[in-house]
From TrEMBL:
This is tRNA methyltransferase 10 homolog C. One of its GO terms (molecular function) is tRNA binding. InterPro entries: MT_TRM10-typ, MT_TRM10-typ_sf, Trm10_C_MTase_dom, tRNA_m1G_MeTrfase_euk. Gene3D superfamilies: 3.40.1280.30. It catalyses: guanosine(9) in tRNA + S-adenosyl-L-methionine = N(1)-methylguanosine(9) in tRNA + S-adenosyl-L-homocysteine + H(+); adenosine(9) in tRNA + S-adenosyl-L-methionine = N(1)-methyladenosine(9) in tRNA + S-adenosyl-L-homocysteine + H(+); an adenosine in mRNA + S-adenosyl-L-methionine = an N(1)-methyladenosine in mRNA + S-adenosyl-L-homocysteine + H(+). Its EC number is 2.1.1.218, 2.1.1.221. It is found in: Mitochondrion. GO terms for cellular component: mitochondrion; nucleoplasm. GO terms for biological process: methylation; mitochondrial tRNA 5'-end processing; positive regulation of mitochondrial translation. Residues 180-372 form the SAM-dependent MTase TRM10-type domain. The keyword Mitochondrion applies. Keywords: Coiled coil, Methyltransferase, Mitochondrion, S-adenosyl-L-methionine, Transferase, Transit peptide, tRNA processing. It comes from Hemiprocne comata. It is an enzyme of class 2 (transferase).
Length: 415
């Protein structure tokens, strides 16, 4: 038995101790380990050993497993760092080859680049980052030029002795900001709620989420400057989400002082269902008038592929009433989707809330999407369009005139 214990100690010293020294483990852990191994041989011959000695062997196993886990974690971290370094070298080669690659790219953007499913998706993502970087440089250049021109104008004014009174302008801007903040604070208590549904992050890419947040920021600014603002709610809003990160990029320290309500709860938990109306372009029901007692919901989603039916399915799943804007009733619509941006929707709803005039409200629809406003009733326009279509089909004029005469005679009889 003593010779067996001596052999075990030699094996431990020759195999386990160098491994522990290589990976930074303590040496004083191993004398009890050799003792527990020798005890295991005793346990095979004599079963009268105490259970506390068995627990030492279990502890040894745990120590060994934790050491192996640390080694595997370090190996995985090394692999990840090597792949990131290889990706950076590849991007540097592409940039030197003349491709549209950003000069500075963060680790988060590099990981997103590596997660792209195809080579074309990687190229598109790099082009997006490159254009974003160019826009930032252009904006910075314009700001520097404005600053230089302002400083030059101030110096010129000092030389000629004509100084501009800019203190009044600053005082006016500060007072207007206070007035806007006071209106929004009042709307948080007495105003009509307006909900932005923030549950569409999984249906969008990173670029589309950034565009969505930019449109919501514009919507919040126009709502803040209006005479009767809404009380904006961000529902289904989760912290550490892409929405949250993009909002912090825009607002920075002002995000905590923003006069809105951001919650991770659903709007069905905050408001009664009979008061909620989900505004979606896919709804079969057309909105006739603006109701001040209802709570309108806007889906916070921007999709370049125009996924139809996503917001309508969300509203039907929750059992909510839906409505679409009456675009065809008031506008001669061109061919194309009837989806509007979030800031355009905010302008339309604010104008309807203040005036109730659809013609004024729909002026915020882009001019490229329609030919003009409807001046005649819809049934007359449909008849004239049907007449034009029959002429385009190549029918003879006499048949068309006969049909028109019959319809005209019927109208006279009815009168």
């Amino acid at each position: 038995m003593q010779s067996a214990n001596v052999l075990l100690k030699k094996i431990i010293r020759s195999s386990v101790l160098p491994f522990a020294a290589q990976h930074g483990m303590k040496k004083d852990l191993f004398p009890p380990l050799s003792r527990t191994l020798s005890l295991s041989l005793c346990l095979k011959q004599d079963n009268s050993c105490s259970p506390s000695e068995k627990l030492d062997l279990d502890a040894w196993k745990k120590v060994m497993k934790s050491g192996l886990q640390e080694v595997s974690e370090t190996v995985s971290e090394c692999k990840e760092l090597s792949t990131l370094a290889a990706a950076r070298e590849l991007l540097e080669m592409w940039r030197l080859a003349g491709r549209s690659v950003p000069e500075n790219i963060s680790e988060e953007q590099l990981k997103t680049f590596m997660e792209c499913p195809s080579k074309s998706a990687k190229k598109k993502y790099l082009k997006y980052l490159h254009l974003k970087e160019l826009y930032k440089k252009n904006d910075k250049r314009k700001m520097d030029e404005k600053r230089e021109s302002r400083l030059a104008a101030q110096e010129q004014g000092l030389e000629t002795g004509k100084t501009k009174n800019t203190s009044f302008v600053c005082l006016w801007a500060n007072s207007m900001d206070r007035a806007y903040n006071w209106r929004v604070a009042q709307s948080m208590v007495f105003g009509q709620p307006l909900v932005f549904d923030m549950s569409y992050e999984k249906d969008m890419s990173v670029r589309e989420v950034a565009n969505t947040v930019r449109q919501i920021v514009l919507s919040e600014g126009s709502n803040r400057r209006s005479a009767d603002p809404f009380h904006i709610h961000f529902c289904n809003f989760k912290e550490d989400s892409l929405y949250h990160k993009e909002f912090i990029k825009y607002y920075r320290d002002a995000w905590g002082r923003l006069l809105i309500t951001a919650t991770d709860q659903c709007y069905t938990q905050l408001f009664p269902k009979d008061k909620l109306i989900y505004l979606t372009a896919d709804s079969p029901k057309v909105m006739k008038t603006f109701n001040h007692d209802k709570i309108y919901i806007i889906g916070s989603m921007v999709d370049k592929s125009i996924k139809t039916g996503v917001s309508l399915a969300q509203a039907k799943r929750l059992g909510l009433e839906t409505a679409a804007l009456p675009l065809e009733k008031y506008l001669l619509w061109n061919s194309g989707a009837k989806n509007l941006t979030l800031d355009q929707m905010m302008h339309i709803l604010l104008t309807l809330k203040d005036t109730g005039d659809w013609k004024k409200a729909l002026e915020f629809v882009p001019k490229r999407k329609y030919c003009g406003f409807v001046s005649k009733p819809m049934h007359e326009l449909k008849k004239s369009l049907n007449l034009i279509n029959t002429l385009k089909l190549g029918k003879r004029q006499e048949e068309v005139k006969k049909q028109f005469a019959k319809n005209y005679s019927k109208k006279l009889r009815q009168k």
